[in-house]
């Protein structure tokens, strides 16, 4: 019924809406911004991204959506973790990956874990370590943004965004909510975290904890109207496809708010 059921190999590329489709969708961006976005953002595989290691030309960043599953009155839903950044924009915890952390996927994950500890005081338990070094992190998408590499720039460079997800327990999630202000980058980089419901409005029954999320246009549609840093909306959209928790019709309502790419 849901998109990921039919197109599992499109995860990480789903937010790249073709221009023919994007032309039919309304956009909250100006015409000039949309034109820039459509010519500057594209999807990469991790293998392709790992070849772009020149620190003078490529800036890598990794971010993560931590989430947990819960059930109320036989209705399954999920909550994800988002943060308010120092610049007032919304985003997900993570940050710059150092050049020495770009020799493998496991090294990128290690850099991401360092950032999670520094920003929101979240540490992966040692018992979760596994042979491939993923520590339970699932890669969702990698995008390259050429918008900084425009004609006339003196030192052309590109931003490369890696995004991961990790399912944690409800106890771990709530512990992070309570202790995130103890991180070394609070409040210099992160001003606080909050939870976002990852559930389709059709599942928000009246007698469950999800009952309010379908009111006044539904939570996610309204949430996507906020100002996100970088390509945070694309990353959240890709995560929703990966989780297979929304109907195609509801996903289509979110598409006008994400950046288009080639």
UniProtKB/TrEMBL annotation:
GO function terms (MF aspect): phosphodiesterase decapping endonuclease activity; snoRNA binding
Gene3D superfamilies per record: Nucleoside Triphosphate Pyrophosphohydrolase (3.90.79.10)
PANTHER family per the UniProt record, alphabetical: NUDIX T16 FAMILY MEMBER, U8 SNORNA-DECAPPING ENZYME
Keywords assigned by UniProt, alphabetized: Nucleus, RNA-binding
Subcellular location field: Nucleus
Gene Ontology BP, a term: sno(s)RNA catabolic process
Top-level division of the source organism's lineage: Eukaryota
A cellular component annotation (GO) from this entry: nucleus
Organism encoding this protein: Tetranychus urticae (Two-spotted spider mite)
Protein name, as recorded: Nudix hydrolase domain-containing protein
InterPro entries linked: NUDIX_hydrolase-like_dom_sf, NudT16
């Amino acid at each position: 019924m849901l998109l990921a059921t039919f197109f599992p190999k499109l995860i990480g590329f789903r937010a790249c809406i073709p221009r023919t489709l994007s032309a039919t969708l309304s956009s909250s961006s100006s015409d000039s911004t949309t034109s820039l976005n459509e010519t500057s953002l594209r999807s990469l595989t991790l293998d392709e991204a790992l070849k772009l290691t020149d620190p003078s030309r490529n800036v890598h960043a990794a971010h993560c959506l931590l989430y947990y599953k819960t059930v109320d009155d036989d209705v399954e839903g999920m909550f994800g973790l988002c943060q308010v950044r120092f610049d007032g924009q919304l985003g997900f915890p993570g940050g710059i990956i150092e050049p020495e952390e770009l020799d493998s996927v496991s090294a990128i994950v290690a850099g991401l874990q360092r950032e999670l500890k520094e920003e929101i005081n979240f540490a992966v338990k040692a018992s979760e370590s596994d042979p491939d070094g993923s520590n339970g992190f699932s890669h969702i998408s990698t995008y390259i943004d050429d918008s900084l590499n425009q004609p006339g720039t003196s030192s052309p460079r590109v931003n490369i965004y890696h995004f991961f997800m990790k399912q944690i327990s409800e106890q771990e999630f709530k512990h992070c909510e309570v202790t995130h202000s103890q991180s070394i980058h609070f409040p210099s980089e992160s001003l606080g975290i909050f939870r976002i419901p990852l559930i389709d409005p059709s599942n928000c029954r009246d007698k469950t904890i999800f009952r309010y999320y379908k009111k006044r246009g539904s939570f996610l549609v309204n949430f996507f109207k906020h100002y996100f840093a970088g390509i945070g909306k694309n990353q959240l959209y890709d995560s929703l496809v990966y989780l297979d928790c929304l109907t195609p019709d509801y996903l289509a309502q979110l598409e006008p708010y994400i950046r288009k790419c080639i």
